[in-house]
Write a structure and sequence with these properties.
single chain; 413 residues; alpha/beta; Rossmann fold; Helicase, Ruva Protein, domain 3; Arc Repressor Mutant, subunit A; 5-stranded parallel β-sheet; 16 helices; AAA+_ATPase; Sigma_54_int_dom_CS; transcription; sequence-specific DNA binding; DNA-binding
């Protein structure tokens, strides 16, 4: 494809950027447009996927037909079939008249199914039939209808994972993904961020009749360094906020940082099990994984306190008039499979004549076994629910049968 034609498309559809991946996506959209192949557009939320179905429609032989965009994630599951395929009068409660549906309305044109990964499984089966044979039936009807519709779909969901999880039909995926188009996230588009910011600032300056905001060099670096989880949509919103709120038209990095949400890069502890498993073993693994992480944090905190007390003891020794501070060094038992859960703190008092110096001695209990902790958890749950085993089992997220077995095993009858 000639670069001049791609630039023409960019100008016509308001696409800003010169990244190779973006230009490649535009090129594929233009090339596939004259055919009737299904196209699947993938990319993160906010990258601008909605422009590409319009390119495909306008450069196809269907450009004079209907173009209908449907957000599949915004339609309730109970009405999605009716919205897409129509319904007969009286097909369900509230169906006071006949409805044609989007696939009927878009006959001879293009239908854009945004967030196609949110479609329920029953609707996916109907959609597959349309793609394979161009046939569908209205809700409440047994009459087969024909439609000639070009389907372009988009999703920010990992459909491969959705197939593995049983949430998306594999045969439908291959039907939709005849020609894939991947839209790159903003964080991978380099200097396109600056071009987009300049475009948005000019648009808002015209909209609100004020001078356009401009970035200092350090602000440009800040803009490029940010990861933009909300992509182009987030950049546009932030540009509008700054344009309205800031009286100074020159935006420094310090000002810009006030509008960039702080990104939490802290890594959370990985759980050994998953909540999807209802077995007690899985729940217990989750508990101990969390407790083990807590134990490490407590050990670090105790080490800090110990160092402070040692430093304090040194200072007291230099004075020579205060009572002697006695500290017991903290010893951490290295048993990662069975974390120590409870640590006690007992005050000790040492006297030197009439002066009294209080301190705390840290004593770490021996690590509890898995069975001991499990038994204690069951005992406390039974106490909380006054011996009602059904409520206790629900509280522990285990079956009553498992609870009965554990009660008998630990002699908690």
């Amino acid at each position: 494809m000639m670069k001049a034609e791609i630039q023409q498309v960019k100008q016509r559809f308001g696409i800003i950027g010169n990244t190779e991946a973006l230009l490649r996506a535009i090129d594929v959209a233009i090339q596939v447009a004259p055919t009737d192949l299904s196209v699947l557009i993938t990319g993160e939320s906010g990258v601008g996927k909605e422009s590409f179905p319009q390119i495909i429609h306008q450069y196809s032989r269907r450009k004079h037909g209907q173009y209908i965009a449907v957000n599949c994630g915004a339609i309730p599951e109970g009405t999605i079939d009716s919205e897409l395929f129509g319904h007969e009068k009286g097909a369900f409660t509230g169906a006071i008249g006949e409805r044609k549906g989007y696939f009927g309305e878009a006959d001879g044109g293009t239908i854009f199914l945004d967030e196609v990964g949110e479609l329920p499984m029953s609707t996916q089966a109907r959609l597959l039939r349309v793609l394979e044979s161009g046939e569908f039936m209205k809700v409440g009807s047994s009459k087969v209808q024909k439609t000639d519709v070009r389907v372009v779909a988009a999703t920010n969901v990992n459909l491969t994972q959705a197939i593995a999880d049983g949430r998306f039909r594999e045969d439908l995926y291959y039907r939709l993904n005849t020609v894939p188009i991947q839209i790159p996230p903003l964080r991978e588009r380099g200097d396109d961020v600056l071009l987009l910011f300049r475009k948005f600032s000019a648009d808002f300056a015209e909209k609100y009749r004020m001078p356009a905001i401009q970035l200092t060099e350090d602000a440009k670096k800040e803009l490029l360094a940010y990861s933009w989880p909300g992509n182009v949509r987030q950049l546009k919103n932030i540009t509008e906020q700054i344009s309205i709120i800031e009286t100074n038209r020159e935006i420094s990095a310090a000002i810009l940082q006030n509008y960039l949400p702080v990104q939490n890069t802290q890594r959370l502890p990985a759980l050994m099990g998953t909540r999807e498993s209802k077995g007690f073993e899985s729940e217990r693994e989750i508990l101990y994984s969390v407790l083990f992480d807590m134990r490490q944090e407590v050990a670090e905190l105790k080490k800090m306190v110990h160092n402070l007390m040692a430093e304090r003891a040194g200072q007291v020794g230099q004075v020579g008039q205060m009572g002697t501070v006695v500290t017991t060094p903290v010893v951490t038992a290295h048993q990662p499979s069975v974390p120590a859960i409870i640590h006690t703190m007992q005050p000790t008092v040492c006297k030197d004549d009439d002066d009294i110096q209080d301190t705390e001695e840290y004593v770490e209990e021996s690590p509890l076994s898995l069975d001991e902790v499990e038994k204690e958890m069951i005992r406390k749950a039974l106490e909380r629910h006054h011996g009602k085993r059904k409520s206790a089992a629900k509280d522990l997220n285990i079956s009553e049968r498992t609870l009965y077995r554990k009660i008998k095993e630990y002699g908690l009858d």
